[in-house]
C-alpha cells in the first residue's frame, strides 16, 4: 500500500474516532467523580447523582454574569427538577463563604450550593478559571455540553429535555 493511502486511512480513522467521541457539539467525556460540600456542610457526590441530568455551574458572587444568570438557573431547576434534573452551583475558591451564604439566602437558591475552598473541583473539571462556566452531564455521567459564559437558556433547556428523555 502506498504511503499516501496509509496516511489517508489513518486520517480517516482519527476523524471517525473524533466523530464518535464528539457528539452534539460537545466532547463526550466522563464527569469527574467528585464530592461536593454545601455551604451548610451537607455532602453529595457526582456518583450520587448518577441517573440524573446534572448542571454543574461554576460561579462567584463577584461575577456579574453569574449573578444575572442565577434567576434563569433557578427557573430551569424548578421546571425540570421533578423529572430528574439537578443543579450544583459551585462557588469558586476565591469567593468568601459568607458572601456565598448571604447570596444563597437572599436569592433563595433551591439547589445544592457547594464551596470549592481548595480549588480542587475547578481543577478536576479541567482547570476552570472563568465564570460562569457550566457543564451539563447526562444520566450516565458524561459531560455533553460545556458553557463558557451565560448559556443560551432556550438551548440549555432543550438539551436538558432531550437528555431527560434518554434512557
Note the main attributes of this structure.
6-stranded mixed β-sheet; alpha+beta; 5 helices; 167 residues
The largest beta-sheet arranges its strands as 3-10-9-6-7-8
Mean pLDDT: 87
Number of strands: 10
| Biggest sheet character | 6 strands, mixed
Helix/strand class = alpha+beta
Strand content: 25-35%
* Radius of gyration using CA atoms only: 18 Å
Please work out how many helical segments DSSP would assign.
Answer: 5
Q: Output the helix-strand order.
A: HEEEEEEHEHEHEEH
Low-confidence stretches: 5-26
Task: Sum up the overall morphology in one term.
Answer: globular
Query: Distance N terminus to C terminus?
Result: 44 Å
What percent of residues adopt helix (DSSP H or I)? Answer: 25-40%
Describe this structure in words.
With 167 residues, the protein is an alpha+beta fold. It is 39% helix and 25% strand. The radius of gyration is 18 Å and the shape is globular.
Per-chain topology:
Blueprint: H1 3-21, E1 22-23, E2 26-27, E3 29-30, E4 35-37, E5 43-45, E6 53-59, H2 64-80, E7 85-91, H3 97-107, E8 112-115, H4 120-124, E9 133-137, E10 142-148, H5 153-165
Parallel strand pairs: 6-7, 7-8
Antiparallel strand pairs: 1-2, 3-10, 4-5, 6-9, 9-10
Amino acid at each position: 500500500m502506498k504511503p499516501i493511502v496509509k496516511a489517508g486511512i489513518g486520517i480517516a480513522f482519527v476523524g471517525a474516532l473524533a466523530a464518535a467521541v464528539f457528539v452534539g457539539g460537545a466532547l463526550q467525556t466522563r464527569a469527574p467523580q467528585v464530592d461536593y460540600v454545601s455551604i451548610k456542610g451537607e455532602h453529595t457526590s457526582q456518583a450520587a447523582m448518577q441517573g440524573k441530568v446534572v448542571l454543574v455551574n461554576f460561579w462567584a458572587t463577584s461575577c456579574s454574569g453569574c449573578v444575572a444568570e442565577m434567576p434563569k438557573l433557578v427557573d430551569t431547576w424548578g421546571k425540570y427538577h421533578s423529572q430528574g434534573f439537578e443543579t450544583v452551583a459551585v462557588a469558586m475558591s476565591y469567593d468568601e463563604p459568607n458572601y456565598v451564604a448571604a447570596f444563597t439566602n437572599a436569592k433563595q437558591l433551591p439547589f445544592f450550593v457547594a464551596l470549592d475552598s481548595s480549588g480542587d473541583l475547578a481543577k478536576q473539571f479541567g482547570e476552570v478559571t472563568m465564570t460562569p462556566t457550566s457543564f451539563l452531564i447526562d444520566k450516565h455521567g458524561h459531560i455533553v455540553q460545556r458553557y463558557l459564559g451565560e448559556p443560551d437558556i432556550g438551548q440549555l433547556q432543550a438539551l436538558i429535555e432531550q437528555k431527560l428523555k434518554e434512557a
